[in-house]
Design a protein that fits this description.
The protein has helices spanning 14-19, 41-44, 55-64, 75-107, 121-168, 171-188, 197-212, 218-236; strands at 26-28, 35-37. It is rod-shaped and about 90 Å long. Helix 3 (55-64) packs parallel to helix 4 (75-107), helix 4 (75-107) packs across helix 5 and helix 6 (171-188) crosses helix 7. A hairpin with a 6-residue loop joins strand 1 (26-28) and strand 2 (35-37). By secondary structure, it is mostly helical. It is built from eight helices and two strands. Strands 1-2 form a two-stranded antiparallel sheet. The protein is 65% helix and 3% strand.
Length: 237
């Protein structure tokens, strides 16, 4: 049997082998060609309310923004509000209204009638779509970053478990694992010039130890982490 000094196994991280907020988009002003900073749709989308779901409420909200709280909506304004609500729905309609009001305030344009926001609809919807795309991209990027951090934690946890298994294994067990690992590496890379053979052998030994100990995969480990957090919250409550 090989001497114990020949069977020492160091835990190898997979990184050993691997080692071998955006700027704001300007929105052209619909009339003057001047530019205004994009609206933060993420905040606007959170303003869900029963108010402004009806034409009269939407027109009232419009006039309130210009200090005309007591003004009664005209039939023409109500028809325009009903058309926009029917076409785009309450959520987008509120965004269109806020977009138009913000841009009008920036340019000093004092809108007197609700129908004035119609000229802003196309730009507002375009910005809505851009902002939704940005939000989706940001959410996807955050999800990727979160998974990368979780995988790093899992790798650290796995390496610690394998290190414990190596320390607990006898020289005879390690010798058997090494011979098996060397055979696997030769079979897998038969006829191929490879570098880092010792590293590949150690990784193969780790894989065998992990399999024998039934160490969980990343998905299994992640699911267990979520179960542990739920149990902790249940105990705390």
């Amino acid at each position: 049997a090989p001497r114990s000094s020949d069977c020492r196994v160091s835990v190898v991280s997979t990184t050993d082998i691997a080692g071998a907020k955006p700027p704001d988009d300007p929105i052209p002003h619909p009339r003057s060609g001047r530019q205004t900073t994009r609206m933060n749709i993420e905040n606007r989308q959170g303003c869900e309310s029963e108010r402004e779901n009806r034409p009269a409420d939407l027109v009232k909200r419009f006039h309130e923004q210009f200090g005309r709280e007591t003004r009664e909506p005209t039939k023409k304004e109500l028809r325009a509000a009903a058309h926009i609500l029917a076409t785009h729905g309450p959520r987008k309609c509120r965004f269109i209204l806020e977009f138009a009001i913000q841009d009008a305030r920036r340019t000093g344009f004092r809108m007197r009638h609700f129908g004035a926001i119609i000229s802003y609809v196309d730009d507002a919807i375009a910005e809505w779509r851009r902002a939704n795309h940005r939000q989706s991209s940001n959410n996807a990027a955050r999800a990727r970053e979160k998974e990368a951090r979780l995988r790093e934690r899992y790798q650290e946890w796995r390496e610690e478990r394998i290190k414990d298994l190596v320390e607990q294994a006898s020289p005879t067990q390690l010798g058997s694992l090494r011979r098996r690992a060397e055979l696997l590496v030769r079979e897998r890379y038969s006829g191929e010039p490879i570098g880092g053979r010792d590293t590949l052998v150690r990784l193969a030994i780790q894989s065998q130890l992990a399999s024998q100990a039934s160490l969980p995969s990343f998905d299994e480990w992640h699911a267990a982490q979520g179960s542990d957090r739920q149990a902790t919250r249940a105990i705390s409550s």
